[in-house]
Amino acid sequence: MQQRTPILVLTALLLATAAQAQLVFEDHFDDGSLDSAWTIHTEYVSAWAGEELGTTFRVTDIAHTEPLQWAGVVLERDLPCLGDFDIRADLQWTGSGLQIMQYARLRLYHEEEQLAWGGYRDAWVGQQGALGGGVLDGSSWDTGNGHTPSVGTVAVRLRRVSSWLELWIDDVLRAEGASLPSATLLEIHFAHWERPGSTMGDLRVDRVRVEGAPSKPQLSIARVDSLVQLDWTGCPELPSRLWWAATADAAWPAAWNVAGDYPTGNGTATWPLNEGLRVFRVTQSHD
Question: Span 9-16+216-286: which CATH code?
Answer without folding.
Answer: 2.60.40
